[in-house]
Task: structure prediction
Amino acid sequence: MTTYYTKDHEWLAVEGATATVGITNYAQNALGDVVFADVPAAGTVVAKGKEAAVVESVKAASDVYSPVSGTVIEANAALADDPALVNTDPEGAGWFFKLTLSDPSELDGLMDAAAYQALVATL
Amino acid sequence: MADSAETVLNLPLDALHRRLGARMVAFAGYAMPIQYDGEFGGIIAEHLWTRSHAGLFDVSHMGQVLVPLAQDKALEALLPGDITGLATGALRYSLLLDAAGGILDDLMVTRRGEDLYLVVNGAVKAADIAHLRSAGITCDYRDDWALLALQGPEAVAVMERLVPGVSELRFMRSGGFDWQGVPLWISRSGYTGEDGVEISAPAAAVGALAEALLAHPEVKPIGLGARDSLRLEAGLPLYGHDLDPGTNPIEAGLAFAISKRRKLEGGFPGAAVIIDQLHNGAARKRVGLAVDGKLPAREGAPVFAGDRAVGTVTSGGFAPSLGAPIAMAYVATDCATDGTPLEIEVRGKRLMARVVPMPFKAKNYVRA
Result:
């Protein structure tokens, strides 16, 4: 499994042709207490860089962009009952959705963990 | 929120907020703490701390203005409250109104021995002062004073330890006190629905006062984020969101701010419209909405009764003490009765909601 990151603070863990998407620890910390996550249902077609989910903190709603194009195969049902998983385990149990990649070459433009940490260090 | 892209000024407690781990945002032209980091920080934790202990809020962005006592009649001509009949030391919630009865600001007016002490919203304080001055009122704008709020069930006990005698103040009463040689003006009032005090202090001394309050284990610093969620649960409107010149006191559910004598005598801006609506009703009303599910409905979301658009959400979000989303909205009066089922549209989805009485969370004022 390889994990990639976007400049918009999403992560993407790729295993073969499928990947899991969530927001990074930096993102959840910046958002504050998450009270709702609006995640796409299985079958939803998402496009790289386009709105795929919405995360609601106490203060505001924020878009989550899909790091790659593909078709959603599973939404994280656990977030409906416990949206705070996004705060407590953003890069684990707080994942948003899984998808099948339609164009694996899109991964080339994403950051690895070291590059992403370097980006966060500048913020 | 009324963020300003213009020059952002620092308030007297700026360094203290940053040392306490505040996330600072621009609000009403000032850098203000939205929330604090750390074990007790975060909007939900700060909100719940205030409901169970005591929260310290820096609200020094608000405008503190003194008006000579002899101008009480002139002030009454701009608002619907009874100011001439207010007891010395008493404070009253009131509304600056335009000629059509639209709300220019909401404010607190305290009648003191020598003057009237006004606390107005930060985002509109310059406009308020200009409005008062254009009516011939002398305004002494005290930007050399800071303003703190200590709110929560343990707030008054903590304040009493620092300043003996404060606990004898009744709700909506105030007085002058001395703390280690520093003159304070303390009111038993607030914007959270909890018991507590608001403290006006010289800017030069407010840092020491804030640190003395924070030294008590009951007290944590609370940011603007929790201030907003606390006031929303308490059903208290926020100027610029739930109130603006396009709303009037009757629509806003603030008829209590029109004092009995003023209802009879009129003589305030928009009196004809407002007194008519007081007796015959307004076309729309500010209501509380309990929202099903967990998805918050926010400011601007349209409200429907079936296919009919009946109003708009003016404030909304997650209520930490209730664990559910709540909202305030203006809706057509025929949809404003408690229990009326309505729908709110959020990102193309219809959320089920129903009209409920405000406050959403019972107030804990100590009226003694």
